[in-house]
Every structure is written in structure tokens, then in C-alpha cells.
Design brief:
This protein is an alpha/beta fold. The protein has eleven helices and ten strands.
Length: about 260
């Protein structure tokens, strides 16, 4: 039955596992297949055409596994390629984009910060979203170097802390009261970010909202897995799997393969 087919997810590496964790928490019955395209990370400095090509490649790998729905667990891939993916493939797609709306709506200072990749912040889709909030000052910051350090397993490094301080302190000085994490890798930096930000500044990422939208779309297409079996989860990476294994901790189905 198609309902028992897996949800497919892909990202430019390990970051999208932060999205996977939220989906698995909300939908524990669902089988999943995750692609970590770490060989091509980061996507943030690639051209729109390159991002579309990589997104199509990843989609086709997941479709070969008969995935019933695909989560583009990458802000850069979503903001640059989601329209093309939906036009090209006959499968529901869930995208992920910076959670500007809740931050803008809840901000008391009308000043919010967003930390994201260059590919996200320069995308047409992102700039379309900004037009909806003309009365909110949105401070954009490219997270130069963060994704690559995370991919290299240097999450707790001094380099990460120093980069975060250089990116976040100017936002603090400009009186932001919300910080939007616009890359699925960045939730893994929350311990360091919370040490830098004053306690009154709230942090928002997209994981929980993406999980809820995934459930809504599965319901809409009658694709929810109602079988009461232990769900299966496979994680594929196209480089050394050690960092992915460390991030996932107790999950043993981490496989290195070319794609």
C-alpha cells in the first residue's frame, strides 16, 4: 500500500535531520528515508541552476525508493527550487523557509534578525516574503562558514562561537527581539546561540511548523500510515557517515552511498 511508503527528505547535508526529528516526533508511525547530500554542501553559495539540478537529482533518488511525499529539508533548496520541483514531479512536496511571519507578527520592537545562507537571503522567494512586512525592520545576516563547520562535526568549536558572536552581536545592538534561524543546520547551534543572546530575545526555527504541514498534506492526500508497526528509517550520505551517525546518536541505519 502506498500509505506504508516512506516520507522522503533531503538536505545539503546533515542539517535537515533537525526537520526529520520534528516529523518523527509528530508522526512516529511514518517510515522515512533521508538523503544527506554532504558531498555538495553547502548549497548556499551555488547558483540557482546548480541548486535546481541538485534538488532534482535528490528527488529522483527518493522517487526510486517510492517515497510518497518529499520534504525539501533545506531552506536554500526550497527558496530556489521548490517551484520547479512541483512543476516537474507528480508527488506532494513540503518546503521549508525562514519563519518570518510568526517573528514579525509577535515582535514588540518591530525589529527581527534572520540568520541564513546566501542562497536563501538572495532568493526571489525570500524577497517576495519580505514585501509582506513593510513595517518590520528585518536584519539579514549570512551565516558564512557555519554549515561547513557543522558538516565537519565542529559544532562545539571555538570557531563556531566566534562566528556566531560576530553575526549576532550587531543584531543585539539594533534591538531585535526575535531571531529567525533560516537554515536547517542552525538548530544544532542553539546552545551556543542562547549563550550569546539576551534572554528576552526569542529564537524561531521552522521544524515544528514543517512537521505540522507534513501531517496536513498526508491527511489531504489520504497518505497517512495507519499500520501499527514499528517504523523504519534509513539515512543515506554520499561522504563519510561518522558526523551523521554522531548527530543521530542511537539510529543505526546510516548508509554511505553515491547519489
Amino acid at each position: 500500500m502506498i500509505n506504508e511508503n516512506a516520507i522522503g527528505l533531503f538536505d545539503s547535508g546533515i542539517g535537515g535531520t533537525s526537520i526529520w526529528k520534528e516529523i518523527h516526533l509528530l508522526l512516529p508511525n511514518e517510515n522515512t528515508i533521508y538523503l544527506a547530500d554532504s558531498k555538495n554542501a553547502p548549497y548556499g553559495f551555488k547558483s540557482k541552476e546548480e541548486i535546481i539540478d541538485l534538488s532534482c537529482k535528490n528527488t529522483e533518488v527518493l522517487l526510486n525508493y517510492n517515497c510518497k511525499l518529499i520534504v525539501v529539508a533545506c531552506n536554500t533548496a526550497t527558496t530556489n527550487a521548490i517551484k520547479e520541483l512541483r512543476a516537474k514531479y507528480d508527488v506532494p512536496f513540503i518546503g521549508i523557509e525562514p519563519a518570518i511571519k510568526p517573528a514579525a507578527n509577535m515582535s514588540k520592537t518591530d525589529i527581527i534578525g534572520i540568520l541564513a545562507t546566501k542562497g536563501t537571503l538572495t532568493s526571489e522567494l525570500f524577497h517576495e516574503k519580505l514585501l509582506s512586512y513593510p513595517n518590520v525592520k528585518i536584519i539579514e545576516q549570512i551565516g558564512h562558514g557555519l554549515v561547513q563547520l557543522i558538516e565537519n562535526g565542529a559544532i562545539d568549536s571555538i570557531e563556531i562561537t566566534e562566528l556566531l558572536e560576530s553575526y549576532l552581536n550587531p543584531m543585539i545592538e539594533q534591538n531585535i527581539d526575535y531571531l529567525v534561524l533560516g537554515c536547517s543546520h542552525y538548530p544544532y547551534l542553539l546552545p551556543q546561540i542562547k549563550k550569546i543572546l539576551p534572554s528576552h530575545i526569542k529564537i524561531i526555527d521552522s521544524g515544528e511548523a514543517v512537521a505540522k504541514q507534513t501531517k496536513n498534506v498526508l491527511n489531504q492526500y489520504n497518505l497517512l500510515n495507519t499500520e501499527n508497526k514499528k517504523s523504519s528509517h534509513f539515512f543515506y550520505t554520499n561522504i563519510n557517515p561518522d558526523v551523521l551517525k554522531k548527530i543521530l546518536k542511537d539510529n543505526k541505519n546510516v548508509i554511505q552511498r553515491d547519489f
